[in-house]
Design a protein that fits this description.
The structure holds two protein chains of two kinds.
Chain A lengths: L6 E7 L7 E7 L3 H12 L7 E6 L11 H5 L23
Antiparallel strand pairs in A: 1-2, 1-3
Chain B lengths: L14 H12 L12 H20 L1 H5 L8 H26 L5 H9 L16 H22 L5 H29 L3 H20 L11 H6 L7 H19 L9 E3 L4 E3 L5 H11 L3 H14 L1 H21 L1
Antiparallel strand pairs in B: 1-2
Classes of the chains: A alpha+beta, B mainly alpha.
C-alpha cells in the first residue's frame, strides 16, 4: 500500500467569532492542500473567515486520567472569582 | 441503518471496569477518544461509523449517475452541491472512525475487498430523473430519521459528526421533495415517472432501517451502550407515519395494498419488505452491488499514481524548506 496522507486538525474563526474553534480533521498531503480542502468542506456555508490547519502529529493532549490532579485544586480557590468579595451596596456598581 | 446487521462484539474485560464504563454511559457522559472503553464497544463503533462513512461515499454513485443528465441547470447545480455534501459527510465520519484507532485507508481497503459493507439502498439503480427526487425525499428522509437520535449517541466524535450532518441532510430531503412536487404536479408522463420512482424505492427505503426487531439479535448490547438509540422497527414505523401523508400530498400512491391507519396504535399498519431480497442485497447479490464496487475499486486503483505523486511532491517541498532553514 502506498503511504497514507497525514491527518490535519482544522480550526476556523467564525465571521464574528473571537477565536479559532476546532471543527474537525481531514487528510491531505501538505498544508496547502489541507487549507484548500478545509475551505471546501468546512466553510461552504459561510462558516468562517480564517482557517488554521495543524498536522495532528504536532498536537499533544492531556490525558483523561489526569482530570482529577489537573483541575481539582482550582475548586478550592474560590477567592479567584470576583463574586467572592462582599462590596457594600453603598459603594455602588463595581 | 448503517448498523444493518452489525453484530455487537463480545467483550471480556475486567467486570469492574465494565461496570464503571456502563455507569458513565447511563449518566449520559460522552465517551471520548482517549477514555477507556471495552474492546467490543470499540470494534462495534469502528464497524458502524466505518460503514456509515462508506455509505456516504458509495451513495454518491446512484445520484452522480444523473448529474450530466439533470433536466435544468438549476437542478444540476443543486445536485452537484448535494453530492459534494455527501463527500463531506464521508470525510467527517472517517475522521470520527479514526479517533478509534483505525486509519481511513485501512477502512477504504476493507470496503474495497468486501470485508465491510455499506447501506443496502445504494445497490438499487436510478433509472429516471424522478428517482433523484425519490432518493432525496425517501432515502435522505430515512437517513434523517436514523441520524437525529444518533446525535445523542454515546461516542462523542460520532455524535458531533451527526449534529453537523443532520443540518445538511435536511437540505437534501427538501430538495428531493421539491423535485417530486414538480414531477407529481407536472404532465401525465412526469407524474407517471414520479409514481414509478416511488414504487421502486419504497421497500428498499424501508429496508434501510435493518431487519425486524424479532430477527435483529444484535440490538440489546448496542442499545445498552447507547450506540443505538432506537430499535429498527421503532424507526421504520416513525418513517412510515411521516412519509404516508407526504405521499398523499403529492397525489402519489404508496405501493402497499395493506397500508391502513391504525387508530389504536396511532400509526399506520404496513407490509414488511421482502426480507429474502434484503439479505441477498447484503450478501452482494443486489441489482448494482457489483457495479458499485467496481466503480470504487477503479477510482482507487486508477487514482493511486495521483495520491503517490501528491505525497512525493509534499515530501520534496518539505525537504527543500528544511534545507533552506
Amino acid at each position: 500500500m502506498s503511504k497514507e496522507w497525514p491527518l490535519w486538525e482544522i480550526f476556523i474563526r467564525g465571521q464574528h467569532g473571537l477565536s479559532h474553534r476546532h471543527v474537525g480533521s481531514l487528510h491531505a498531503p501538505d498544508a496547502e492542500m489541507a487549507i484548500k480542502n478545509a475551505r471546501d468542506v468546512y466553510t461552504r456555508r459561510n462558516e468562517g473567515v480564517s482557517i488554521w490547519v495543524v498536522e495532528a502529529n504536532n498536537i499533544a493532549a492531556s490525558s483523561p486520567s489526569d482530570k482529577g490532579p489537573l483541575y481539582e485544586p482550582s475548586e478550592s480557590k474560590v477567592y479567584r472569582h470576583p463574586t467572592f468579595y462582599d462590596i457594600p451596596d453603598d459603594v455602588g456598581h463595581m | 441503518m448503517y448498523a444493518q446487521m452489525i453484530a455487537s462484539e463480545a467483550t471480556t474485560e475486567d467486570p469492574q471496569k465494565l461496570a464503571e464504563f456502563q455507569a458513565r454511559i447511563d449518566a449520559d457522559i460522552k465517551v471520548e477518544p482517549r477514555d477507556w472503553m471495552p474492546q467490543g464497544y470499540r470494534k462495534t463503533l469502528i464497524r458502524q461509523i466505518g460503514q456509515h462513512a462508506h455509505s456516504e461515499i458509495v451513495g454518491q454513485l446512484p445520484e452522480g449517475n444523473w448529474i450530466t443528465r439533470a433536466p435544468t441547470l438549476e437542478r444540476k447545480m443543486i445536485l452537484l452541491a448535494k453530492v459534494q455534501d455527501e463527500a463531506g459527510h464521508g470525510l467527517y465520519l472517517y475522521a470520527a472512525a479514526e479517533t478509534l484507532g483505525v486509519s481511513r485507508d485501512e477502512l477504504t481497503e476493507m470496503l474495497l475487498d468486501g470485508r465491510m459493507k455499506y447501506s443496502s439502498i445504494f445497490n438499487y439503480p436510478t433509472l429516471n430523473w424522478a428517482d433523484i427526487g425519490a432518493v432525496g425525499w425517501l432515502v435522505d428522509g430515512a437517513a434523517i430519521m436514523n441520524q437525529v437520535p444518533l446525535q445523542r449517541t454515546s461516542y462523542g466524535p460520532y455524535s458531533r459528526a451527526m449534529i453537523r450532518i443532520c443540518k445538511e441532510e435536511s437540505f437534501h430531503q427538501r430538495q428531493g421533495f421539491d423535485i417530486m412536487m414538480k414531477m407529481a404536479q407536472g404532465t401525465d408522463a412526469q407524474k407517471k415517472m414520479a409514481q414509478d420512482a416511488l414504487n421502486r424505492l419504497w421497500y428498499p427505503s424501508l429496508m434501510m432501517f435493518g431487519p425486524s426487531d424479532a430477527d435483529s439479535v444484535h440490538s440489546t448490547q448496542n442499545m445498552a451502550w447507547k450506540i443505538k438509540m432506537n430499535t429498527n422497527d421503532e424507526l421504520r414505523q416513525k418513517f412510515v407515519d411521516q412519509t404516508v401523508p407526504q405521499a398523499e400530498f403529492l397525489g402519489l400512491t404508496i405501493p402497499d395494498e395493506h397500508l391502513t391507519w391504525n387508530e389504536a396504535k396511532g400509526g399506520y399498519d404496513y407490509s414488511d419488505p421482502d426480507w429474502t431480497e434484503f439479505f441477498e442485497v447484503l450478501k452482494g447479490n443486489g441489482p448494482c452491488n457489483a457495479d458499485r464496487m467496481e466503480a470504487r475499486n477503479k477510482a482507487w486503483d486508477d487514482g493511486a499514481w495521483v495520491r503517490d505523486g501528491l505525497m512525493a511532491h509534499a515530501e520534496k517541498k518539505r525537504a527543500a524548506q528544511t534545507a533552506a532553514q
